[in-house]
Amino acid sequence: MELDQGNSRLKWRLLSSSAEATVQEGAVLGHGADALRCVEQALPPAISAAVQRVRLSCVGGTARTQQLLQACRETWRPEPEVAHTRTLWAGLHCAYECAEDLGSDRWLAMLAARHLQRGNLCVVDVGSALTVDIVTADGRHLGGYIAAGQRTLFKALGAGVPELQTQPPPTPPTDAAPGTSTEAGIAAGVLGAMVGLVHHALLTATCELAAPPALLVTGGDGDWLRTQLPSHARYLPQLVLDGLAVALP
Asked: What is the rounded (10 degree) CA torsion for 69, 27, 31, 59?
């Protein structure tokens, strides 16, 4: 069993005993015991009882990680294994002075990206937050960018400017052209801000590196944002979970 506890969702994937195939996967809003209970309910009892290994990543602090660990212990027999960011692992050199200050989800996504594709990399994770990390072909993490994701931007604008309070549209915006209503203007601004950050990161990385980076996109809103990015962008929805096998072989 592999678990990726983000800020708003718990993504999970059950692999076969050989780890060569996905038996079942999904995502649950929330975190901790309540979210894990939904995962358990989604699995046939016989399959849940046969779980032999639990690997996980958790963001949100020590307390949240401990809650998830305890819930895992109460749900499945194996002691859960937690991925922690390291200064050097599998050829990836973390740029942070204190490696564990870098979210394990970003680190795992970079590990998986290097495992999947060689060369310079730009790794984009699109969820509650939008993160962009640059990795050189020889494994040096040059650092990254952290900004608000789509829904967070909508909420922040409404909280800071009450007269602009609005809800995220049922479907994410796909047009950054000037809006002809307040709602359309906000949607275009949100999309433009997110796309602009990725383009800025790509431009900066291309200027610093000998060759432009490959663009790999993951996260709950990754498939949406990918459609607004250069055509060579690849959407890899399970990139963080894929990194668990590299971090915890």
From this structure: 70
